[in-house]
Automatic annotation (TrEMBL):
<dbReference type="Pfam" id="PF02985">
    <property type="entry name" value="HEAT"/>
</dbReference>
<keyword id="KW-0677">Repeat</keyword>
<dbReference type="InterPro" id="IPR000357">
    <property type="entry name" value="HEAT"/>
</dbReference>
<dbReference type="InterPro" id="IPR011989">
    <property type="entry name" value="ARM-like"/>
</dbReference>
<protein>
    <recommendedName>
        <fullName>TOG domain-containing protein</fullName>
    </recommendedName>
</protein>
<dbReference type="InterPro" id="IPR016024">
    <property type="entry name" value="ARM-type_fold"/>
</dbReference>
Length: 113
């Protein structure tokens, strides 16, 4: 919540950009994990991460926020994390097993389109 607040309301652009970048990294890690596929064990945390990524997606879409806040590769990584949670990757059974998390990921993906 603190990062979301800073991202949306801080008067300094450098703070808003840093908060957005941190939010992308933290939420991606919580939602689908890192290279070792270690995602957060809590359904609530993964669901909140998907929702927060959706909020970033909303800002990217509405305010065309990518040039200063983060790179297109970072946005693409967030979208990939949401897709992974929703439908998985090449590994069988790799999508998130909790329906609420998949639903939050689907809603968040819409924000990026």
């Amino acid at each position: 919540k603190a990062l979301e607040h800073a991202m949306e309301r801080d008067k300094r652009e450098v703070v808003r950009n840093a908060a957005a970048k941190a939010l992308l990294v933290i939420c991606k890690q919580a939602l689908v994990g890192d290279d070792n596929q270690v995602k957060d064990k809590s359904r609530e945390v993964r669901e909140a991460a998907a929702k927060a990524l959706g909020r970033v997606g909303h800002l990217v879409k509405v305010y065309q926020w990518t040039p200063n806040a983060f790179t297109s590769d970072e946005v693409a990584a967030a979208i990939e994390a949401l897709k992974h949670a929703l439908v998985g990757n090449q590994e069988p059974g790799s999508k998130d097993t909790v329906a609420e998390v998949r639903k939050a990921a689907a809603k968040a993906l819409v924000e990026f389109s």
